[in-house]
Input
Amino acid sequence: MVKILASKLRDVELITDTGIRLGWVYDLSFDEKTGELLVIVAEPDEDLDTSEFVTDHEGLLLIPVSAVRSIGEVIIIDSSKLAVKSKLRGIRHR
Output
């Protein structure tokens, strides 16, 4: 396993596996009890319509770590695992 310092991820671009530019890493969110990395907090791309994406109160994207496919010059996000509001609404209604 390759170790990556969190400080090296700041401002790395996030792109989906379908080529959608999501934005850039702003911060990381951890579970304070377990230390588990939960989400990547991202500054959205200026052309991205964030209305269907899960965001925080400041409008920053919340990307689940489980959606990360690869990390390199950019971070590739598996679009099928990306949390979007329409998927979350479907889960709540079941």
